[in-house]
Amino acid sequence: MTRTLAALLGTAITLSTLTAAQAQEVNLYSSRHYDTDERLYSDFTAATGITVNRIEGNGDELIARMQAEGANSPADVFLTVDTVRLARAAAMGLLQPIESAILEARVPAYLQDDDNNWFAFSQRARILFYDKTEVTNPPQSYQDLAKPEYAGQVCIRSATNVYTQNIAAALIAHLGEAAVQDWATAVVGNFARAPQGGDTDQLRGIASGECNIAMSNTYYYSRIIREGDSQITPEQLANIGWVFPNQNDIGAHMNVSGGGVAANAPNRENAIKFLEYLTSEQAQQYFSAGNDEYPAVPGVGLAPSVAALGIFRPDTIDLSDIAANVEAAVKVLNNAGWQ
């Protein structure tokens, strides 16, 4: 009897120790693939003692994985690089609403999901770039891309890309679906080539002379300023100008990285602590210094490569309004023949 009781007590102690160890971890499903994020994770662990376990992959793949895992999913946090997939995960019931005074205080309301399923932690302005040697009157708004004078000059990403879907959804929220349908159809008529490649490829298209105008997120250009690019010479880079669009009305469209707590998070409190950490001064500065992004928290300083682009007026539309128009945006782009 004594040995049995001792054995039981030993088992209980072991289980208790395991539970305590499990409580000091957070399982992150992330589509952010930047090596610089390693510092975010190590600093969070140093500050809290909570180990970050990561599963990285494409946002859609991670969503499918969470759905397949169901209630047994080990995911605590879903982190991705666009509003489209954040909204999709929430709509599929893969995220849970949370209450956090820290997140509410530090993240502006328009950068939060209306139901608190997700929050933005960094931003990238989606702006227009142009060849200064070829374009004397660059477009000053997203709508200007539809002007006949830019026929055969525009390089841009495909209709399946979430950044393209986001900008179309934002314009629908501002201008209405009919107006954006006309816009998208006219922009397709101005393509210099069929949509292809990533944002850096659009900038390379300007450098190579394949197109005179392109749309890209700012952090790709800022990264070239900081690190260079094997396919863009310093002379070619100097000939690329940029415009923050719509500075007299809606402002420049902002893409975001953001995240939320998984619906079945086994370490829910640690997950919330991790999201709160991403709004800290340290983490926000690192988004800018490490990955050339704009902080989501107001008042945080910018890295030189980001500040070099200048001050601008961002579009402060509620991200939930963009998410609500993504389905309409996909239809508009397909109807326009935007490949």
Write the layout of secondary structure elements.
Elements: H1 2-22, E1 25-30, H2 38-48, E2 51-56, H3 59-69, E3 77-80, H4 83-91, E4 95-96, H5 101-106, E5 119-131, E6 154-155, H6 162-175, H7 177-189, H8 199-208, E7 213-217, H9 218-227, H10 234-238, E8 240-243, E9 253-262, H11 268-278, H12 281-291, E10 294-295, H13 304-307, H14 319-324, H15 326-335
Parallel strand pairs: 1-2, 1-3, 6-7
Antiparallel strand pairs: 3-9, 4-9, 5-7, 5-8, 5-9, 5-10
Helix pairs in contact: 6-7, 6-15, 7-15
Instruction: Report helical residue fraction.
Output: 40-55%
* Total helical segments: 15
Instruction: Just name the CATH architecture of the largest domain.
Output: 3-Layer(aba) Sandwich
Count the E strands: 10
Q: N- to C-terminal separation?
A: 75 Å
- Please give the CATH class of the largest domain: Alpha Beta
Descriptive account of the structure:
The protein is an alpha/beta fold and 339 residues long. It has two domains: 26-123 and 255-308, D-Maltodextrin-Binding Protein, domain 2 (3-Layer(aba) Sandwich), CATH 3.40.190; 126-252 and 320-335, D-Maltodextrin-Binding Protein, domain 2. It is 45% helix and 16% strand. It is built from 15 helices and ten strands. It has helices spanning 2-22, 38-48, 59-69, 83-91, 101-106, 162-175, 177-189, 199-208, 218-227, 234-238, 268-278, 281-291, 304-307, 319-324, 326-335, and strands at residues 25-30, 51-56, 77-80, 95-96, 119-131, 154-155, 213-217, 240-243, 253-262, 294-295. Strands 1, 2, 3, 4, 5, 6, 7, 8, 9 and 10 form a ten-stranded mixed beta sheet that branches. Mean pLDDT is 92; it is low at 1-22.
